[in-house]
Structure formats: structure tokens, C-alpha cells
Amino acid sequence: MSRPLHVVLAGGSGQVGSLLARRFHGQGHRVIVLARTVASVSPVSSFPWQVVHWDGTTFGDWTSYLEHADVVINLAGRSVNCRYTEANRKAIKDSRVQTTRLLGQAIGKAVHPPPLWMNASTATIYRHTLDRAMDEDTGELGGSEPDAPSAWRFSIDVATSWEEAFFSAVTPRTRKVALRSAVVMSPDRGGIFGELLRLVRLGLGGTAGSGRQFVSWIHEEDFLRSVEYLIDHQEIRGPVNLASPNPLPNQEFMQALRKAWGIPVGLPASEWMLKLGAVVLRTETELILKSRRVVPDRLLQSGFRFEFPDWPVAAEDLVSRWRVKNPAAKAAVVTVLERHS
After folding, report:
1. Where are the alpha helices (DSSP H) in the chain?
2. Cα–Cα dist 122/161, whole Å
3. What confidence tens digit (pLDDT) does each residue in 288-317 have?
4. In which residue ranges of the chain is pLDDT below 70?
5. How far apart are the C-alpha atoms of 139 and 171, rounded to whole Å?
6. Distance CA 272, CA 197 (A)
7. For residue 108, with 0-12 CB atoms within 10 Å meaning exposed, 13-18 middle and 19 or more buried, which class applies?
């Protein structure tokens, strides 16, 4: 990216969108964030980039910002951190599929469409797997496993419908890349890293379930660098896994996080405890118990190199930066250590 770009981030007011907006703006690019409720990112004046309203379902003035844009990145979608009730399932799926179809229609009608459209997807699209890693070419999509819970099959249906809406859009002048992203680990508030670290700080960050299920993850810096890499490398199109090349079992993942924080032990949670806790917290155990063993073969084969390929090093970096952002939490280490002494 040798020149300033015009970047449009649809659904860019969440944690990942904010990471991208901050990165692009800091590099001198023009950033336009499309937000369903402008008030949700209020005060808008506190952001150095422009926030434009859209409802994700109808055309409006927002379409003018697609003209002459260099890249559009669609991150729109209702949070999956909820109970999968019928109403929530509909909202989760519609918020992804409808916005993707709408963007595809708008880009297809643009006089000067963006040369690149990247659409969020998810590493959850692959089947629950302990036996082998899943890459873009040989990975097996999930949903047909005989023992998969209905919540897992629902997530696969959302992911495949999402990508179908994306790739079926008629945008002949626009390159398309589906970002099959693993969990983005960032010390910023509002992400899963903070929730996992909170469990560790409370002495609850032990093995979840059997601990054998794999965790696919990506450090925020590598996520941002991989997006930049995809912008620059025009030969890459189609689905791309954005994940560390080294997923690891939950037991090892949590052990490394506890070590990075400085706590030797954490209380484990059995599967029945997780199910009970999910009901109380209004979420689903799929986020913890499904094994995601995803590898970024297309990125690696094209020459991309990760700065944080291994979780123990990434965890130390993230914990260190989290401490800087939350200095008052340092005293919690002493308290929890005393509890386990």
C-alpha cells in the first residue's frame, strides 16, 4: 500500500472493525465506517474517521462512498455470543446474509466499483476436528457430522449461507476474498481475550471440557498484517484462512495464558458445568467446546510470515499490553496467588 487508500468498513464499529479503522487511519488512509446506529459509536466526533449511517437492508446515501473506493471490508453481523433461540438465530443469519447481498448489489451497480471486496467469514465453517488440520483446499466443511449438536449445525449453515451470498454476487470488476478468520486476540476491551484473561485472573482459567478440542486464534497484529497483505497481493482471491499456523488444544492454550499472567493453576470446567454456565450467561458452549483446527495454507504458500505464530509468545505480548491498559488489575495477581498458596 504505497499510496493513500479509500477504505470502506461496513459494520466497522465493533472491536475488529475498530482495529482496522485505527490501523488504516494511522497509515494516512481515508476511512469510512458504515454503522447501523450512528449513536452506537457516539460521540461520532471522537473518531478521527467518518461514520456514515446505513441500516444494512436498504440502499441509501451510503452507496456513494463505494464509488472510487479502493477496498470494501464487510464485517457486519450480529454477535453470536447469545443463546441460539429462534429469534436470535434469525437475527444472526439475516444480519450477515442480507448485508452481504445488499453490498453485492451496490458494488455491482457502482459506476466506479472498488477493485477489492473482502467479506468476513469464519473458521467455524470447518467441521469439528481433532484428527487433522483444515486448510482452504482440503478442509472439510462442517454440518454433516452425525453427532454434531444443532447449535453447531446452525453455525455452519450461517457460515455457508454467508459465503454463498458473497461469492454469488455479480461484481465482475471486483476481486473477492472471504476472510475465514479465527478468533482475533487483542487486549482491547470487548473481545474474547479479555474474557479469557478474566477467568484466569479469577483462578477459573483451567481446562474446558476434555481440553482436547483445538483452539484456532490469531494475534491482532497478524490479523491486521494479513488484511494488508491481501490488499497488496492481487493474485489472491476466494476463501482465505486468517489464523495462526499453530492451533493448539484448549488445555495447552489455557496453560500458556495462565503462565503469561503468572498464575500456576486454574480451576477446570467440565462439560456439564460449561452447559450450565452458558445458560446463566446467555451464550452457547460451541464457542468453547467445538474443536477448530484451522491453518492458513494460502497465506503461507504465498509468502506471508507471521510475527506471532506461537500462542505462548503471543499470550505474553497480549498480557503485557493488557496490563498497561489496565494498571489497577495488577493487584489481582497477588490476591489470586494467595488463594492458591
Report:
1. 15-26, 86-109, 150-167, 192-201, 220-232, 250-261, 271-281, 286-289, 297-302, 311-325, 331-340
2. 12
3. 888 999 999 999 999 999 999 999 999 999
4. 1, 38-45, 272-286, 330-341
5. 26
6. 22
7. middle
Q: What is the largest CA-CA distance in the chain?
A: 67
C-alpha–C-alpha distance, residues 173 and 108, integer Å? 8
Identify the architecture of domain 6-190+216-246+293-308 in CATH: 3-Layer(aba) Sandwich (3.40)
0.90 surpassed by pTM: yes
Residues 194/322, Cβ–Cβ less than 8 Å = yes
> What's the half-sphere exposure (Cβ side, CA atoms, 13 Å) at 160?
13
* CA distance linking residue 31 with residue 29, whole number of Å: 6
20 secondary structure, DSSP code = H
Average pLDDT, the chain: 89
| HSE-up of residue 205 (Cα within 13 Å, Cβ side) | 26
| Domain assignments of the chain as residue spans, ordered by start | 6-190+216-246+293-308
C-beta separation of 264 from 340 below 8 A: yes
Identify the burial level of 158 via C-beta atoms within 10 angstroms of its C-beta, where 0-12 means exposed, 13-18 middle and 19 or more buried: buried
Distance CA 40, CA 45 (A): 12
Q: Could you identify the residue written with the cell 489470586?
A: 336
**Structure-block grid coordinates of residue 339:** 488463594
Consecutive H or E run containing 242? strand 238-242
What b-and-e string marks burial along 163-193, b requiring 16 or more CB atoms within 10 Å of the CB? bebbbebebeebbbbbbbbbbbbbbbeebeb
CA distance 4 to 241: 26
Local structure of residue 139 (DSSP, 8 states): P
Q: What are phi and psi of 152, to 5 degrees?
A: -70, -40
All three cell numbers of 227: 488484511
Beta bridge partners of 31: 7
